[in-house]
Amino acid sequence: MIDEFVTIAGRLQREVAAVVAAPVLSDEHDPLHAVRASVEIQADATALLAAAVERARGTGRTWQEIGDVLGISRQAAFQRFGKPIDPRTGETMNTTPLPEAAALAGTVIDELARGKWEVVIDRCDDTVRERLNAEGLAVAWAQVIGMAGAYERRGQTEATRAADITITNTPLAFEAGDFTARISFRDDQTIAGLFILAV
User: Fold this and answer.
1) What are the φ and ψ backbone dihedral angles of 17, each rounded to 5 degrees?
2) At what angle do helices 2-25 and 31-58 cross, to 10 degrees?
3) How buried is residue 1: exposed, middle or buried, by Cβ count under 10 Å (0-12/13-18/19+)?
């Protein structure tokens, strides 16, 4: 663990030094060179941060302490860097959200806004379909409209993974209020949960 940290830190130091010195030491005037180098630095900085968090955890530091340093909650720190063990298998859980989750959530929200209730229900898994039908979905959306006015837009979706489900949270702006669409997806891209929550 320490070796990995030192290796990444050394590489990052060399990359930063090269970018800083490049305008002085090189005749290259291509500004994209600095962009490419900065992307590499960013990737290494991300890897360095992950290694530093792993090292801190290895020395007994808590998620609360790590979250405080990062300016986030202990749960957010754990969700970003933790390696939970699946109690069903004893294996490290996959914590990577479904890559298409943000786009899927956006599509579902757009379908809700257009009144395509049946299309949304068709995206749901069997468990959700047993409890929710197109009419119920239409009633729920109408209740939100009744409380907050016409739908205006959606914000940027955030996705996290919990066990076998990817959970998305998307801010929704209505003419007189804000809500969050929380949509959960299985790995087969079916909807495992759909909630419109007051902010």
Assistant:
1) -60, -40
2) 160
3) exposed
